[in-house]
Design goal:
556 residues; alpha/beta; 4-stranded mixed sheet; 18 helices; elongated; G-D-S-L family lipolytic protein
Protein backbone atom coordinates (compact mmCIF):
# COMPACT_ATOMS: atom_id res chain seq x y z
CA UNK A 1 0.00 0.00 0.00
CA UNK A 2 2.81 2.38 0.89
CA UNK A 3 4.62 1.48 -2.35
CA UNK A 4 1.50 2.22 -4.37
CA UNK A 5 1.05 5.60 -2.68
CA UNK A 6 4.73 6.40 -3.19
CA UNK A 7 4.43 5.61 -6.89
CA UNK A 8 1.37 7.85 -7.05
CA UNK A 9 3.30 10.72 -5.48
CA UNK A 10 6.23 10.14 -7.82
CA UNK A 11 4.03 10.14 -10.88
CA UNK A 12 2.30 13.26 -9.60
CA UNK A 13 5.62 15.02 -9.15
CA UNK A 14 7.01 14.05 -12.55
CA UNK A 15 4.96 16.55 -14.57
CA UNK A 16 5.85 19.33 -12.11
CA UNK A 17 9.50 18.42 -12.32
CA UNK A 18 9.28 18.46 -16.12
CA UNK A 19 7.57 21.84 -16.11
CA UNK A 20 10.11 23.23 -13.68
CA UNK A 21 12.95 21.93 -15.78
CA UNK A 22 11.36 23.31 -18.95
CA UNK A 23 10.86 26.75 -17.38
CA UNK A 24 14.45 26.80 -16.20
CA UNK A 25 15.64 25.96 -19.70
CA UNK A 26 13.39 28.64 -21.23
CA UNK A 27 14.61 31.24 -18.74
CA UNK A 28 18.18 30.45 -19.72
CA UNK A 29 17.36 30.80 -23.43
CA UNK A 30 15.49 34.07 -22.87
CA UNK A 31 18.38 35.47 -20.84
CA UNK A 32 20.81 34.51 -23.60
CA UNK A 33 18.61 36.33 -26.12
CA UNK A 34 18.46 39.41 -23.88
CA UNK A 35 22.21 39.38 -23.42
CA UNK A 36 22.72 39.21 -27.17
CA UNK A 37 19.77 41.47 -28.13
CA UNK A 38 18.84 43.65 -25.17
CA UNK A 39 15.34 45.13 -25.15
CA UNK A 40 15.19 48.93 -25.17
CA UNK A 41 14.59 50.24 -21.70
CA UNK A 42 12.66 53.30 -20.69
CA UNK A 43 13.91 56.38 -22.52
CA UNK A 44 16.22 58.50 -20.42
CA UNK A 45 18.00 61.79 -20.83
CA UNK A 46 19.94 64.48 -19.05
CA UNK A 47 19.10 68.13 -18.52
CA UNK A 48 22.74 69.11 -18.24
CA UNK A 49 23.15 72.37 -16.33
CA UNK A 50 19.51 73.33 -16.89
CA UNK A 51 16.74 73.38 -14.30
CA UNK A 52 13.69 72.41 -16.36
CA UNK A 53 11.41 71.72 -13.41
CA UNK A 54 9.11 74.67 -14.17
CA UNK A 55 9.15 75.45 -17.89
CA UNK A 56 6.95 78.26 -19.21
CA UNK A 57 6.47 79.44 -22.80
CA UNK A 58 5.80 83.01 -23.87
CA UNK A 59 4.82 83.75 -27.44
CA UNK A 60 2.06 84.24 -29.96
CA UNK A 61 -0.08 81.93 -32.07
CA UNK A 62 2.61 79.34 -32.83
CA UNK A 63 3.45 79.04 -29.15
CA UNK A 64 -0.26 78.64 -28.37
CA UNK A 65 -0.64 75.79 -30.88
CA UNK A 66 -2.84 77.77 -33.26
CA UNK A 67 -3.03 75.94 -36.59
CA UNK A 68 -5.47 75.44 -39.47
CA UNK A 69 -6.65 79.02 -38.83
CA UNK A 70 -8.02 78.20 -35.38
CA UNK A 71 -7.05 77.40 -31.81
CA UNK A 72 -8.41 73.94 -31.04
CA UNK A 73 -7.56 71.25 -28.53
CA UNK A 74 -5.65 68.89 -30.79
CA UNK A 75 -3.57 71.79 -32.10
CA UNK A 76 -2.76 72.89 -28.56
CA UNK A 77 -1.71 69.36 -27.68
CA UNK A 78 0.79 69.47 -30.56
CA UNK A 79 2.21 72.92 -29.81
CA UNK A 80 6.00 72.95 -29.78
CA UNK A 81 6.06 73.97 -26.08
CA UNK A 82 3.90 70.98 -25.17
CA UNK A 83 6.13 68.69 -27.25
CA UNK A 84 9.18 70.20 -25.56
CA UNK A 85 7.66 69.70 -22.12
CA UNK A 86 7.02 66.05 -22.97
CA UNK A 87 10.70 65.57 -23.76
CA UNK A 88 11.72 67.52 -20.66
CA UNK A 89 9.61 65.11 -18.57
CA UNK A 90 11.64 62.10 -19.73
CA UNK A 91 13.46 60.38 -16.88
CA UNK A 92 16.69 62.17 -16.02
CA UNK A 93 15.94 65.41 -17.88
CA UNK A 94 14.24 67.03 -14.93
CA UNK A 95 11.08 68.53 -16.40
CA UNK A 96 7.81 68.86 -14.53
CA UNK A 97 4.15 69.19 -15.44
CA UNK A 98 3.08 71.51 -18.25
CA UNK A 99 -0.39 73.02 -18.25
CA UNK A 100 -2.01 74.81 -21.16
CA UNK A 101 -5.16 76.97 -21.22
CA UNK A 102 -7.24 74.30 -22.96
CA UNK A 103 -9.66 75.84 -25.45
CA UNK A 104 -11.82 72.73 -24.97
CA UNK A 105 -12.99 72.68 -28.58
CA UNK A 106 -12.55 70.10 -31.32
CA UNK A 107 -12.72 72.67 -34.13
CA UNK A 108 -12.13 76.04 -32.49
CA UNK A 109 -13.08 79.39 -33.95
CA UNK A 110 -11.80 80.83 -37.23
CA UNK A 111 -14.49 83.36 -38.09
CA UNK A 112 -18.14 83.91 -38.91
CA UNK A 113 -19.96 83.48 -42.22
CA UNK A 114 -23.44 84.92 -41.99
CA UNK A 115 -24.90 83.26 -38.92
CA UNK A 116 -22.49 80.32 -39.03
CA UNK A 117 -19.45 80.01 -36.79
CA UNK A 118 -16.51 78.58 -38.70
CA UNK A 119 -13.89 76.31 -37.16
CA UNK A 120 -10.50 74.95 -38.16
CA UNK A 121 -9.78 74.32 -41.81
CA UNK A 122 -9.23 70.94 -43.42
CA UNK A 123 -7.77 70.20 -46.83
CA UNK A 124 -10.53 69.11 -49.19
CA UNK A 125 -8.97 66.57 -51.53
CA UNK A 126 -11.95 66.89 -53.88
CA UNK A 127 -11.80 70.70 -54.07
CA UNK A 128 -8.00 70.89 -53.72
CA UNK A 129 -8.24 73.73 -51.21
CA UNK A 130 -8.71 74.32 -47.48
CA UNK A 131 -12.34 74.39 -46.34
CA UNK A 132 -13.72 75.31 -42.90
CA UNK A 133 -15.39 73.00 -40.41
CA UNK A 134 -18.24 73.94 -38.08
CA UNK A 135 -16.74 75.94 -35.23
CA UNK A 136 -17.52 77.18 -31.76
CA UNK A 137 -17.30 80.55 -30.06
CA UNK A 138 -14.23 81.19 -27.90
CA UNK A 139 -15.06 80.03 -24.39
CA UNK A 140 -13.64 80.84 -20.98
CA UNK A 141 -10.81 78.81 -19.51
CA UNK A 142 -12.21 76.72 -16.68
CA UNK A 143 -8.91 75.45 -15.29
CA UNK A 144 -6.58 76.78 -12.62
CA UNK A 145 -5.02 79.96 -14.02
CA UNK A 146 -2.27 79.96 -11.40
CA UNK A 147 -0.92 76.62 -12.66
CA UNK A 148 -0.51 77.53 -16.33
CA UNK A 149 2.76 77.08 -18.21
CA UNK A 150 1.86 78.06 -21.77
CA UNK A 151 1.36 81.80 -22.18
CA UNK A 152 1.07 81.82 -25.96
CA UNK A 153 -1.55 84.27 -27.22
CA UNK A 154 -2.60 84.28 -30.90
CA UNK A 155 -2.21 87.75 -32.39
CA UNK A 156 0.08 89.07 -29.66
CA UNK A 157 2.78 91.56 -30.65
CA UNK A 158 6.00 91.99 -28.73
CA UNK A 159 4.71 95.21 -27.14
CA UNK A 160 1.50 93.51 -25.95
CA UNK A 161 3.21 91.25 -23.41
CA UNK A 162 3.53 94.08 -20.89
CA UNK A 163 0.31 95.93 -21.72
CA UNK A 164 -2.41 95.66 -19.04
CA UNK A 165 -4.94 96.96 -21.55
CA UNK A 166 -4.29 94.06 -23.91
CA UNK A 167 -7.88 93.02 -24.69
CA UNK A 168 -7.14 90.02 -26.87
CA UNK A 169 -9.91 87.42 -26.24
CA UNK A 170 -7.38 84.59 -26.23
CA UNK A 171 -5.58 86.27 -23.33
CA UNK A 172 -8.67 87.47 -21.48
CA UNK A 173 -9.90 83.88 -21.15
CA UNK A 174 -6.95 82.97 -18.91
CA UNK A 175 -5.71 86.36 -17.63
CA UNK A 176 -5.30 86.37 -13.86
CA UNK A 177 -6.96 89.79 -13.62
CA UNK A 178 -8.30 91.02 -16.98
CA UNK A 179 -7.63 94.71 -17.54
CA UNK A 180 -4.92 94.83 -14.88
CA UNK A 181 -2.66 91.82 -15.31
CA UNK A 182 -0.21 91.34 -18.18
CA UNK A 183 0.89 88.26 -20.06
CA UNK A 184 4.48 88.70 -18.86
CA UNK A 185 3.37 89.31 -15.29
CA UNK A 186 1.22 86.19 -15.26
CA UNK A 187 4.11 84.16 -16.64
CA UNK A 188 6.53 85.50 -14.02
CA UNK A 189 4.08 84.77 -11.22
CA UNK A 190 4.65 81.05 -11.76
CA UNK A 191 8.33 81.41 -10.75
CA UNK A 192 9.73 79.76 -13.88
CA UNK A 193 13.08 78.01 -13.93
CA UNK A 194 13.20 77.86 -17.73
CA UNK A 195 11.40 79.67 -20.54
CA UNK A 196 10.99 79.75 -24.30
CA UNK A 197 10.36 83.17 -25.83
CA UNK A 198 9.13 83.61 -29.39
CA UNK A 199 7.59 87.00 -29.99
CA UNK A 200 8.00 89.52 -32.81
CA UNK A 201 6.35 87.59 -35.62
CA UNK A 202 3.12 89.58 -35.59
CA UNK A 203 4.97 92.88 -35.51
CA UNK A 204 5.59 92.51 -39.26
CA UNK A 205 3.43 89.53 -40.22
CA UNK A 206 0.21 91.47 -39.60
CA UNK A 207 1.31 93.96 -42.25
CA UNK A 208 2.19 91.19 -44.68
CA UNK A 209 -0.97 89.07 -44.38
CA UNK A 210 -3.07 92.20 -44.95
CA UNK A 211 -1.36 92.80 -48.28
CA UNK A 212 0.99 95.51 -47.07
CA UNK A 213 -1.66 98.21 -46.97
CA UNK A 214 -0.99 99.60 -43.48
CA UNK A 215 2.59 100.49 -42.62
CA UNK A 216 1.45 101.87 -39.27
CA UNK A 217 0.87 98.28 -38.13
CA UNK A 218 4.63 97.63 -38.23
CA UNK A 219 6.35 97.95 -34.85
CA UNK A 220 9.24 100.40 -35.01
CA UNK A 221 12.72 99.11 -34.22
CA UNK A 222 13.10 101.26 -31.07
CA UNK A 223 9.76 100.06 -29.70
CA UNK A 224 10.62 96.48 -30.62
CA UNK A 225 13.96 96.67 -28.82
CA UNK A 226 12.51 98.33 -25.74
CA UNK A 227 9.77 95.70 -25.37
CA UNK A 228 12.24 92.87 -25.94
CA UNK A 229 14.67 94.20 -23.35
CA UNK A 230 11.88 94.65 -20.82
CA UNK A 231 10.50 91.12 -21.22
CA UNK A 232 13.79 89.24 -21.43
CA UNK A 233 15.31 91.31 -18.67
CA UNK A 234 12.44 90.47 -16.33
CA UNK A 235 12.57 86.78 -17.18
CA UNK A 236 16.31 86.51 -16.57
CA UNK A 237 16.15 88.62 -13.40
CA UNK A 238 13.61 86.13 -12.05
CA UNK A 239 16.40 83.56 -12.07
CA UNK A 240 15.19 81.62 -15.09
CA UNK A 241 17.26 80.55 -18.07
CA UNK A 242 15.69 80.18 -21.48
CA UNK A 243 15.72 80.08 -25.24
CA UNK A 244 14.86 82.92 -27.61
CA UNK A 245 13.94 82.25 -31.22
CA UNK A 246 14.79 84.30 -34.28
CA UNK A 247 12.03 85.18 -36.73
CA UNK A 248 11.55 83.08 -39.89
CA UNK A 249 11.51 84.44 -43.46
CA UNK A 250 7.79 85.19 -43.67
CA UNK A 251 7.77 85.81 -47.43
CA UNK A 252 8.51 82.11 -47.96
CA UNK A 253 5.38 80.91 -46.15
CA UNK A 254 2.79 79.00 -48.21
CA UNK A 255 0.35 81.85 -47.50
CA UNK A 256 2.42 83.92 -49.92
CA UNK A 257 3.51 81.12 -52.25
CA UNK A 258 0.53 78.82 -52.86
CA UNK A 259 -1.01 81.20 -55.43
CA UNK A 260 1.37 82.18 -58.22
CA UNK A 261 1.57 85.66 -59.72
CA UNK A 262 0.83 84.09 -63.12
CA UNK A 263 -1.98 81.80 -62.00
CA UNK A 264 -4.27 82.53 -64.98
CA UNK A 265 -3.84 79.48 -67.21
CA UNK A 266 -5.50 79.74 -70.63
CA UNK A 267 -5.75 77.87 -73.89
CA UNK A 268 -5.25 79.81 -77.12
CA UNK A 269 -8.96 80.11 -77.90
CA UNK A 270 -9.76 81.60 -74.50
CA UNK A 271 -6.76 83.93 -74.70
CA UNK A 272 -7.95 85.18 -78.10
CA UNK A 273 -11.46 85.70 -76.77
CA UNK A 274 -10.21 87.72 -73.80
CA UNK A 275 -7.90 89.83 -75.95
CA UNK A 276 -10.78 90.65 -78.27
CA UNK A 277 -13.04 91.61 -75.38
CA UNK A 278 -10.46 93.71 -73.54
CA UNK A 279 -8.76 95.19 -76.56
CA UNK A 280 -10.89 98.32 -76.24
CA UNK A 281 -9.27 99.06 -72.87
CA UNK A 282 -5.82 99.00 -74.47
CA UNK A 283 -7.06 101.19 -77.33
CA UNK A 284 -8.25 103.87 -74.93
CA UNK A 285 -4.93 103.75 -73.06
CA UNK A 286 -3.02 104.04 -76.35
CA UNK A 287 -5.04 107.12 -77.21
CA UNK A 288 -4.23 108.61 -73.82
CA UNK A 289 -0.50 108.16 -74.51
CA UNK A 290 -0.90 110.01 -77.81
CA UNK A 291 -2.76 112.78 -76.00
CA UNK A 292 -0.03 112.97 -73.35
CA UNK A 293 -2.52 112.06 -70.64
CA UNK A 294 -0.36 109.13 -69.51
CA UNK A 295 3.21 108.04 -70.27
CA UNK A 296 4.29 105.10 -72.38
CA UNK A 297 5.67 103.48 -69.22
CA UNK A 298 2.25 103.82 -67.60
CA UNK A 299 0.65 102.18 -70.62
CA UNK A 300 3.17 99.34 -70.58
CA UNK A 301 2.40 98.68 -66.91
CA UNK A 302 -1.37 98.60 -67.48
CA UNK A 303 -1.61 96.83 -70.85
CA UNK A 304 -3.76 93.68 -70.83
CA UNK A 305 -2.60 90.89 -73.12
CA UNK A 306 -3.18 87.14 -72.87
CA UNK A 307 -1.55 84.13 -74.51
CA UNK A 308 -1.78 80.36 -74.22
CA UNK A 309 -0.28 79.07 -70.96
CA UNK A 310 0.34 80.87 -67.67
CA UNK A 311 -0.66 84.53 -67.55
CA UNK A 312 -0.28 87.22 -64.87
CA UNK A 313 -3.24 87.92 -62.60
CA UNK A 314 -5.03 91.14 -63.50
CA UNK A 315 -5.20 93.08 -60.22
CA UNK A 316 -6.59 96.29 -58.76
CA UNK A 317 -3.73 98.45 -57.50
CA UNK A 318 -4.65 101.55 -55.51
CA UNK A 319 -1.05 102.76 -55.71
CA UNK A 320 -1.54 103.43 -59.42
CA UNK A 321 -2.80 106.80 -60.57
CA UNK A 322 -6.60 106.76 -60.65
CA UNK A 323 -7.46 107.31 -64.31
CA UNK A 324 -11.14 107.93 -63.51
CA UNK A 325 -10.92 111.73 -63.94
CA UNK A 326 -9.06 111.32 -67.24
CA UNK A 327 -11.63 108.82 -68.50
CA UNK A 328 -14.29 111.39 -67.56
CA UNK A 329 -12.40 113.98 -69.62
CA UNK A 330 -12.46 111.66 -72.63
CA UNK A 331 -16.22 111.32 -72.20
CA UNK A 332 -16.58 115.10 -71.97
CA UNK A 333 -14.59 115.49 -75.20
CA UNK A 334 -16.73 112.84 -76.90
CA UNK A 335 -13.72 110.58 -77.39
CA UNK A 336 -15.61 107.72 -75.73
CA UNK A 337 -19.30 107.00 -75.22
CA UNK A 338 -21.12 106.79 -71.89
CA UNK A 339 -21.31 103.01 -72.29
CA UNK A 340 -17.56 102.82 -72.93
CA UNK A 341 -16.91 105.01 -69.90
CA UNK A 342 -18.89 102.61 -67.72
CA UNK A 343 -17.00 99.62 -69.12
CA UNK A 344 -13.70 101.30 -68.24
CA UNK A 345 -14.59 101.71 -64.56
CA UNK A 346 -12.89 98.47 -63.32
CA UNK A 347 -9.67 99.44 -65.13
CA UNK A 348 -9.08 102.86 -63.62
CA UNK A 349 -6.39 101.35 -61.36
CA UNK A 350 -5.61 97.94 -62.84
CA UNK A 351 -2.52 96.16 -64.07
CA UNK A 352 -1.18 92.62 -64.50
CA UNK A 353 0.97 91.41 -61.61
CA UNK A 354 4.73 91.21 -62.09
CA UNK A 355 7.10 88.35 -61.44
CA UNK A 356 8.19 88.55 -57.82
CA UNK A 357 4.89 89.88 -56.51
CA UNK A 358 3.06 87.60 -54.07
CA UNK A 359 -0.70 86.99 -54.19
CA UNK A 360 -2.08 86.00 -50.81
CA UNK A 361 -3.60 82.59 -50.15
CA UNK A 362 -6.98 84.31 -49.74
CA UNK A 363 -6.82 85.38 -53.39
CA UNK A 364 -6.99 81.75 -54.48
CA UNK A 365 -10.65 81.38 -53.53
CA UNK A 366 -11.55 84.41 -55.67
CA UNK A 367 -9.60 83.78 -58.85
CA UNK A 368 -11.71 82.27 -61.61
CA UNK A 369 -15.03 83.10 -59.95
CA UNK A 370 -17.54 85.54 -61.44
CA UNK A 371 -17.37 89.04 -60.01
CA UNK A 372 -21.08 89.59 -60.60
CA UNK A 373 -21.98 86.29 -58.93
CA UNK A 374 -23.76 85.10 -62.08
CA UNK A 375 -22.33 81.92 -63.57
CA UNK A 376 -24.93 81.58 -66.32
CA UNK A 377 -23.90 81.59 -69.95
CA UNK A 378 -26.42 84.32 -70.74
CA UNK A 379 -24.42 87.11 -69.07
CA UNK A 380 -21.02 88.58 -69.98
CA UNK A 381 -18.09 86.88 -68.30
CA UNK A 382 -16.71 88.71 -65.28
CA UNK A 383 -13.97 86.29 -64.31
CA UNK A 384 -11.92 87.65 -61.42
CA UNK A 385 -8.23 87.90 -62.21
CA UNK A 386 -8.71 87.73 -65.97
CA UNK A 387 -11.58 90.08 -66.88
CA UNK A 388 -12.28 91.89 -63.62
CA UNK A 389 -9.19 92.87 -61.61
CA UNK A 390 -8.53 90.94 -58.42
CA UNK A 391 -9.47 93.19 -55.50
CA UNK A 392 -12.06 95.23 -57.44
CA UNK A 393 -15.62 94.94 -56.16
CA UNK A 394 -17.78 95.03 -59.27
CA UNK A 395 -21.06 95.24 -57.36
CA UNK A 396 -19.81 97.84 -54.88
CA UNK A 397 -16.66 99.56 -56.19
CA UNK A 398 -16.32 101.74 -53.10
CA UNK A 399 -15.87 98.56 -51.06
CA UNK A 400 -12.99 97.18 -53.13
CA UNK A 401 -10.07 95.42 -51.45
CA UNK A 402 -7.59 97.50 -53.39
CA UNK A 403 -4.14 95.95 -53.45
CA UNK A 404 -4.73 94.12 -50.16
CA UNK A 405 -4.69 90.72 -51.85
CA UNK A 406 -1.04 90.73 -52.89
CA UNK A 407 2.36 92.04 -51.87
CA UNK A 408 4.06 94.18 -54.48
CA UNK A 409 7.83 94.32 -54.81
CA UNK A 410 8.23 97.27 -52.45
CA UNK A 411 6.03 95.64 -49.80
CA UNK A 412 7.94 92.38 -50.20
CA UNK A 413 11.18 94.25 -49.56
CA UNK A 414 9.68 95.95 -46.51
CA UNK A 415 8.81 92.57 -44.98
CA UNK A 416 12.30 91.21 -45.68
CA UNK A 417 14.08 94.28 -44.31
CA UNK A 418 11.97 94.57 -41.15
CA UNK A 419 12.35 90.86 -40.42
CA UNK A 420 16.11 91.26 -40.69
CA UNK A 421 16.00 94.39 -38.53
CA UNK A 422 14.10 92.53 -35.82
CA UNK A 423 16.47 89.57 -35.99
CA UNK A 424 19.50 91.82 -35.65
CA UNK A 425 17.81 93.43 -32.65
CA UNK A 426 17.07 90.04 -31.09
CA UNK A 427 20.70 88.99 -31.51
CA UNK A 428 21.95 92.23 -29.98
CA UNK A 429 19.62 92.17 -26.99
CA UNK A 430 20.36 88.51 -26.24
CA UNK A 431 24.11 89.14 -26.48
CA UNK A 432 23.83 92.12 -24.13
CA UNK A 433 21.85 90.19 -21.52
CA UNK A 434 24.16 87.18 -21.77
CA UNK A 435 27.17 89.39 -21.16
CA UNK A 436 25.66 90.41 -17.83
CA UNK A 437 23.85 87.20 -16.90
CA UNK A 438 26.49 84.57 -17.66
CA UNK A 439 24.86 83.20 -20.80
CA UNK A 440 21.37 82.68 -19.41
CA UNK A 441 19.76 82.79 -22.85
CA UNK A 442 20.31 80.35 -25.69
CA UNK A 443 19.60 81.92 -29.08
CA UNK A 444 17.91 79.46 -31.44
CA UNK A 445 18.11 80.48 -35.10
CA UNK A 446 15.27 78.93 -37.11
CA UNK A 447 16.34 80.49 -40.42
CA UNK A 448 18.72 77.73 -41.62
CA UNK A 449 15.94 75.15 -41.33
CA UNK A 450 13.71 77.36 -43.47
CA UNK A 451 16.49 77.79 -46.03
CA UNK A 452 16.75 74.01 -46.22
CA UNK A 453 13.02 73.31 -46.36
CA UNK A 454 12.28 75.90 -49.03
CA UNK A 455 15.16 74.83 -51.25
CA UNK A 456 16.93 78.18 -51.31
CA UNK A 457 20.17 78.63 -53.17
CA UNK A 458 23.07 80.00 -51.10
CA UNK A 459 22.86 83.30 -52.97
CA UNK A 460 19.14 83.69 -52.32
CA UNK A 461 19.59 82.74 -48.67
CA UNK A 462 22.25 85.42 -48.32
CA UNK A 463 20.05 88.09 -49.91
CA UNK A 464 17.01 87.11 -47.87
CA UNK A 465 18.63 86.87 -44.45
CA UNK A 466 21.16 89.68 -44.80
CA UNK A 467 19.74 92.59 -46.82
CA UNK A 468 22.51 94.70 -45.25
CA UNK A 469 24.97 92.83 -47.50
CA UNK A 470 27.44 92.21 -44.70
CA UNK A 471 27.17 95.61 -43.03
CA UNK A 472 25.54 94.11 -39.94
CA UNK A 473 27.70 91.38 -38.33
CA UNK A 474 24.72 89.62 -36.73
CA UNK A 475 22.87 89.40 -40.04
CA UNK A 476 26.03 88.28 -41.81
CA UNK A 477 26.36 85.44 -39.30
CA UNK A 478 22.72 84.48 -39.78
CA UNK A 479 23.21 84.48 -43.55
CA UNK A 480 26.30 82.28 -43.29
CA UNK A 481 24.40 79.73 -41.22
CA UNK A 482 21.49 79.76 -43.66
CA UNK A 483 23.78 79.40 -46.67
CA UNK A 484 25.27 76.25 -45.15
CA UNK A 485 21.82 74.65 -45.14
CA UNK A 486 20.64 76.08 -48.48
CA UNK A 487 20.94 73.04 -50.73
CA UNK A 488 18.64 74.20 -53.54
CA UNK A 489 16.41 71.14 -53.10
CA UNK A 490 12.81 71.67 -52.05
CA UNK A 491 11.93 69.87 -48.83
CA UNK A 492 13.68 68.94 -45.60
CA UNK A 493 14.87 65.40 -44.84
CA UNK A 494 13.54 64.24 -41.50
CA UNK A 495 13.96 60.64 -40.34
CA UNK A 496 14.38 59.47 -43.93
CA UNK A 497 11.33 61.37 -45.21
CA UNK A 498 11.38 64.41 -47.49
CA UNK A 499 8.84 66.73 -45.87
CA UNK A 500 7.60 69.63 -47.99
CA UNK A 501 7.21 73.34 -47.07
CA UNK A 502 3.49 73.43 -47.82
CA UNK A 503 0.14 72.14 -46.55
CA UNK A 504 0.02 69.06 -48.76
CA UNK A 505 -0.35 65.65 -47.04
CA UNK A 506 3.45 65.38 -46.64
CA UNK A 507 3.90 69.03 -45.71
CA UNK A 508 4.97 70.71 -42.49
CA UNK A 509 2.48 73.59 -42.53
CA UNK A 510 -1.17 73.62 -41.55
CA UNK A 511 -3.96 74.54 -43.94
CA UNK A 512 -3.82 78.25 -43.11
CA UNK A 513 -0.45 78.48 -44.87
CA UNK A 514 1.19 80.32 -41.96
CA UNK A 515 1.29 78.09 -38.89
CA UNK A 516 3.08 74.74 -38.68
CA UNK A 517 1.17 71.49 -38.41
CA UNK A 518 2.17 68.99 -35.67
CA UNK A 519 5.15 67.79 -37.68
CA UNK A 520 6.28 71.37 -38.16
CA UNK A 521 5.94 71.98 -34.43
CA UNK A 522 8.05 68.89 -33.76
CA UNK A 523 10.78 70.24 -36.04
CA UNK A 524 10.75 73.51 -34.07
CA UNK A 525 10.94 71.61 -30.78
CA UNK A 526 13.90 69.65 -32.08
CA UNK A 527 15.74 72.83 -33.10
CA UNK A 528 15.46 73.96 -29.49
CA UNK A 529 16.51 70.58 -28.12
CA UNK A 530 19.48 70.48 -30.48
CA UNK A 531 20.63 73.91 -29.29
CA UNK A 532 20.29 72.93 -25.62
CA UNK A 533 22.14 69.68 -26.16
CA UNK A 534 24.97 71.47 -27.94
CA UNK A 535 25.27 74.50 -25.68
CA UNK A 536 24.04 73.45 -22.24
CA UNK A 537 25.53 69.99 -21.82
CA UNK A 538 22.09 68.41 -22.03
CA UNK A 539 21.13 65.09 -23.56
CA UNK A 540 17.43 65.57 -24.23
CA UNK A 541 15.86 63.01 -26.60
CA UNK A 542 14.48 64.38 -29.84
CA UNK A 543 10.80 64.37 -30.78
CA UNK A 544 9.87 61.69 -33.33
CA UNK A 545 8.62 64.01 -36.07
CA UNK A 546 7.12 61.49 -38.48
CA UNK A 547 5.22 59.74 -35.69
CA UNK A 548 2.99 62.82 -35.56
CA UNK A 549 0.26 63.71 -38.03
CA UNK A 550 0.56 66.21 -40.83
CA UNK A 551 -2.54 68.03 -42.05
CA UNK A 552 -6.16 67.08 -41.55
CA UNK A 553 -7.77 66.20 -44.87
CA UNK A 554 -11.14 65.00 -46.12
CA UNK A 555 -12.36 63.53 -49.39
CA UNK A 556 -15.30 65.88 -50.02
Amino acid sequence: MKMKRLKTYLFALLPLAFITFSCDEEDILVQEQLDNNPLPGAETGDGGVLDLSNYISLGNSITAGFMDNALYTNGQNHSFPNLLATQFAIQGVGGGSFNQPDINSANGFSGVSGTNILGRYELSLAQQRPVPTVGEAIGDFSGNKSELNNFGVPGMKITDATNPGFANPYYLRFASNPGTSTVLGDALSTTPTFFSYWLGNNDILGYAVAGGVDESSITSQPNFQSALEQSLGALVQSGAEGVVMTLPPFVLLPYFRAVKWNAITLDQATADQLNAGLGSVNQVLEGMVEANLITQADYDEREISYSAGANPILAHDTELEDLGPKFDLLLLLNRISAAQREQLRPYEQSRPLRNGELPLLTAGSLLGTEADGDNSANTPTTTIGAVIPLGYNLLNPSNSDGDGLFLNIEEFETVVEMTATYNATIAGVVAGINAQANGSITLVDVQPAFADAFGLSPALANALFDPSNGANPALAAFADAAEARADGTLGIMIEGHNLQPDFAPNGIFSTDGIHPNPRGHAIIANLIIEALNNQKGADIPMVNVTALRGILARDF
